[in-house]
């Protein structure tokens, strides 16, 4: 069990969260709970009740838009009233890094555009847009508008 905990810590440090989650599940199956700490991890015996075990892995959806709005469990025309809770381990930092990278790329594109380097600006904005769309960030529309504006400026105007 200690070896599993050490391997899980190494997987987390390598940012291999899927492997870390699998190792956590194995530790739980052995009757222990592992908690991350500032210095590594802590292990405590799991309480005897079955609720201490992690639930089976659920289907992971690509984004909120992939959540089904109807299905066999929801009769046609009914309203779904529910509260959804998400347990996100490690993602807040990853998300913060993505947003920071997209903001940096957007500013780089702005700087390149101001310097007259339109192709480089477009490249930076395209990279930023890909990140923002991937995380469904509302600023994606602003970056998309910059790209459209750049394309419009680069298009030759028809002569009359």
Order of helices and strands: HHEEHHH
- Overall pLDDT metric: 77
Strand content: 5-15%
Briefly note the structural class of the backbone. mainly alpha
Strand order within the widest beta sheet: 1-2
Using only C-alpha atoms, the radius of gyration works out to 23 Å
Q: Under the CATH scheme, which class of one domain?
A: Mainly Alpha
Q: Give the N-to-C terminal Cα separation.
A: 79 Å
- CATH architect. name of one domain: Up-down Bundle
Largest sheet: number of strands, sense, barrel closure: 2 strands, antiparallel
Low-confidence stretches: 50-56
> How many strands in all?
2
Binned, the helix content reads: 40-55%
Descriptive notes:
- The protein is mostly helical.
- Among the domains are: 2-48, no CATH class; 91-154, Up-down Bundle (Methane Monooxygenase Hydroxylase, Chain G, domain 1), CATH 1.20.58.
- 51% of the residues lie in helices and 8% in strands.
- It has a two-stranded antiparallel ribbon.
- β1 (32-37) and β2 (40-45) form a beta hairpin.
- The protein starts with a helix and ends in a 6-residue tail after the last helix.
- Mean pLDDT is 77; it is low at 50-56.
List keywords for this structure.
single chain; 160 residues; mainly alpha; Methane Monooxygenase Hydroxylase, Chain G, domain 1; 2 strands; 51% helix
Short description:
This protein is mainly alpha-helical and 160 residues long.
How does the SSE layout of this entry go?
Layout: H1 2-13, H2 17-29, E1 32-37, E2 40-45, H3 91-114, H4 118-134, H5 140-154
Helix pairs in contact: 1-2, 3-4, 4-5
């Amino acid at each position: 069990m200690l070896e599993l905990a050490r391997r899980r810590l190494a997987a987390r440090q390598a940012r291999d969260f899927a492997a870390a989650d699998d190792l956590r599940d194995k530790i739980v199956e052995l009757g222990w709970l592992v908690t991350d700490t500032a210095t590594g991890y802590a292990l405590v015996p799991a309480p005897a009740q079955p609720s201490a075990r992690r639930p089976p892995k659920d289907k992971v959806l690509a984004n909120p838009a992939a959540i089904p709005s109807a299905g066999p469990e929801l009769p046609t025309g009914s309203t779904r009233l529910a509260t959804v809770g998400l347990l996100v381990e490690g993602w807040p930092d990853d998300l913060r890094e993505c947003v920071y990278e997209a903001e940096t790329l957007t500013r780089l594109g702005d700087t390149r555009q101001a310097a007259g380097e339109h192709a480089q600006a477009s490249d930076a904005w395209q990279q930023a847009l890909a990140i923002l769309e991937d995380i469904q960030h509302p600023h994606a529309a602003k970056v998309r508008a910059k790209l459209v504006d750049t394309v419009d400026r680069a298009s030759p105007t028809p002569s009359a």
